[in-house]
């Protein structure tokens, strides 16, 4: 079942730099939630605080009411959190299918000895997740690429493969870091369709960091706008787009005055 | 590479390669003279040692400069056990587990450090190991070292000792290679590869990089112990010099030249380790080190992926021809191993059955 995510006064500081200052918001279970803001606003840092890759200097991050700040990323992943990265890091020599199968790691049974002697249990589990991974690739329009090495695919398709890898983890909370960055328009459309289908078919909460306002407007129930590490506003995507503070943050005060 | 053959692939194709390999390896010891059998057995010993190094370094990306220490430890345990008339199976188990436990303890501390710090800790192993072996002379025989003879051919087999020993090396080494090959595919292969490539991604899918670095290092130490057992079986003598730092670096060079992160590369690495010093000695004994260095540089310039990468274009070609016909799975490591076997077969065919 979908997870609830709550940030309470989250601050992050690297030496003298305040990356995040007292950011608070709540993502309801099953929501698609947008995190927007200009470059350097702290969106990815906030993501890293949620996924456990950074530890917030202050504040709490809780999933379903349980504080998780400071937990290791691997622990969080085993409790239903999955994420993608801005720069997909795939095994380029391996096939797309092998890359997706990495997402099955925590669900595959057996220790090293069992896998070394290839017991029936490990072979069956591997086969079962192979089928599941192929099914996910199929649903995301990548079935044709399953047996190709990842380096034969474009950057945009790498993002799709990474999404499948995250989905194979069967997450309750999915964090997508700039899924549309660098994608041509047609692939952004694919992505929007994929995330919509996700919401329709799976019980999952999705948080998206994104610059592409079209994608944010098309998908999200609610957004938080960050600027210089502070929460600027919270509301719907439409409200954010018409908010003068947001326009100012994106294009600067003078330009915002010109627009007005 | 790490891909399980699909059921669509016909079973005889899958079994033909390995079967051929087994037959060739069963016949070879009967055909070759004693000196050649000994060289092959030595190659087997160091191929296993390189395989262990490959597991932690080639596959998991953790620089280990101390692999020879575990070979030495396994050899000493074997020598001590054999000279005290312990059951050989017990000796074998101890020769695996003692290095594995030592490796585990070292890794628990070293893997916390990450990066070059692991390399520095592993450098210390042979550097500490050599004087330690000299000091603990009650167990190690000090600078003189230990001799132990075991693994003579049982009566009734009709085999010479060198043939019997080579069979033992092939059986034990073959089992280690088979188990390792299985391990580096599937779940653990993916884990080791992603820990090498990107620890953030690894942890984001629920993998604790620390845990699997420790695992890889422990298994490498265990395999090192097995190679130490085989070392005593074949060479029958060990001294502190066995685990000198220079040998550890040569083992590393052998892994790189054979092919990092490759099963076939480990075998080729073992062959390099044994054969190249002998060949350079034949050319000019005073230039041995220089010629070895030159070989290393040439291989690195021409084949950065090591000798094993020579077999890969074959696999690639095979895969793309499959793709044109339909969705058949890509290259499997057995394809590359197969081509290695194919290169060996003409020799046996030339020699015929004795």
Automatic annotation (TrEMBL), chain A:
SUPFAM superfamilies reported in the protein's UniProt record: P-loop containing nucleoside triphosphate hydrolases
Key word ATP-binding present: yes
Domain ABC transporter: 5-253
Presence of keyword Transmembrane helix: no
MF (Gene Ontology): ATP binding
Coiled-coil residue spans: none
Keyword field: ATP-binding, Nucleotide-binding, Transport
Superkingdom field: Bacteria
Gene3D superfamilies named in the record: P-loop containing nucleotide triphosphate hydrolases
A Pfam family it matches: BCA_ABC_TP_C
Protein name: ABC transporter ATP-binding protein
Organism: Pseudonocardia humida
Phylogenetic lineage: Bacteria, Bacillati, Actinomycetota, Actinomycetes, Pseudonocardiales
């Amino acid at each position: 079942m979908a997870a609830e995510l709550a940030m309470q006064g989250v601050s992050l500081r690297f030496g003298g730099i305040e990356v995040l200052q007292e950011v608070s918001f709540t993502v309801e279970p099953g929501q698609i939630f947008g995190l927007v803001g200009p470059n350097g606003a702290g969106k990815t840092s906030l993501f890293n605080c949620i996924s456990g890759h950074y530890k917030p200097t202050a504040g709490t991050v809780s999933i379903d009411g349980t504080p998780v700040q400071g937990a290791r990323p691997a622990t969080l992943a085993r409790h239903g959190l999955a994420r993608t990265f801005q720069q997909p890091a795939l095994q380029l020599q391996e096939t797309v299918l092998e890359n997706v199968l990495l997402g099955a790691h925590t669900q595959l049974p057996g220790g090293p000895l069992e896998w070394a002697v290839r017991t029936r249990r490990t072979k069956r589990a591997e086969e079962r997740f192979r089928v599941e991974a192929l099914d996910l690739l199929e649903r995301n329009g990548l079935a044709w690429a399953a047996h190709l090495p990842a380096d034969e695919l474009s950057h945009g398709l790498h993002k799709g493969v990474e999404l499948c890898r995250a989905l194979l983890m069967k997450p309750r909370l999915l964090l997508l870091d700039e899924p549309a960055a660098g994608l041509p328009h047609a692939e952004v459309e694919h992505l929007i369709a994929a995330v919509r289908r996700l919401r329709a078919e799976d019980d999952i909460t999705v948080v998206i960091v994104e610059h592409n306002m079209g994608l944010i407007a098309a998908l999200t129930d609610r957004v938080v706008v960050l600027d210089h590490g502070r929460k600027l506003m919270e509301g719907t995507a439409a409200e954010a787009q018409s908010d003068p503070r947001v326009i100012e943050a994106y294009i600067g005060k003078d330009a915002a005055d010109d627009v007005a | 590479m790490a891909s399980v053959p699909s059921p669509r692939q016909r079973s005889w194709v899958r079994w033909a390669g390995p079967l051929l390999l087994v037959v060739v390896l069963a016949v070879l010891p009967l055909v070759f003279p004693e000196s050649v059998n000994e060289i092959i057995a030595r190659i087997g010993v160091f191929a296993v040692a390189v395989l262990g190094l490959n597991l932690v370094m080639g596959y998991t990306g953790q620089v280990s400069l101390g692999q020879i220490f575990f070979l030495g430890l396994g050899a000493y345990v074997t020598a001590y056990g054999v000279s005290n008339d312990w059951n050989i199976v017990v000796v074998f188990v101890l020769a695996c587990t003692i290095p594995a436990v030592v490796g585990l303890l070292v890794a628990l501390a070293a893997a916390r450090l990450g990066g070059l710090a692991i390399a520095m800790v592993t450098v210390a192993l042979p550097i500490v190991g050599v004087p330690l072996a000299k000091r603990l002379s009650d167990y190690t025989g000090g600078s003189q070292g230990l001799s132990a003879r075991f693994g003579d051919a049982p009566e009734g087999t009709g085999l010479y000792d060198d043939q019997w020993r080579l069979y033992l090396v092939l059986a034990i080494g073959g089992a280690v290679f088979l188990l390792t090959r299985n391990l580096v595919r599937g779940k653990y292969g993916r884990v080791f590869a992603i820990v090498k490539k990107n620890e953030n991604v690894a942890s984001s899918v629920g993998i604790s990089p620390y845990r699997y670095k420790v695992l890889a290092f422990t298994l490498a130490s265990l395999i090192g112990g097995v190679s130490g057992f085989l070392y005593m079986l074949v060479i029958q003598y060990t001294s502190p010099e066995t685990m000198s730092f220079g040998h550890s670096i040569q083992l590393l060079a052998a892994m790189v030249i054979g092919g990092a992160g490759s099963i076939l590369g480990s075998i080729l690495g073992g062959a390099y380790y044994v054969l190249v010093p002998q060949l350079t000695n034949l050319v000019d004994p005073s230039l041995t080190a220089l010629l070895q260095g030159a070989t290393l540089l040439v291989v690195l310039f021409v084949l950065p992926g090591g000798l094993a990468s020579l077999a890969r274009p074959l696999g690639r070609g095979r895969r793309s021809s499959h793709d044109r016909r339909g969705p058949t799975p890509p290259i499997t490591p057995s394809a590359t191993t197969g081509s290695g076997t194919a290169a060996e077969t003409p020799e046996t065919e030339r020699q015929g059955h004795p």
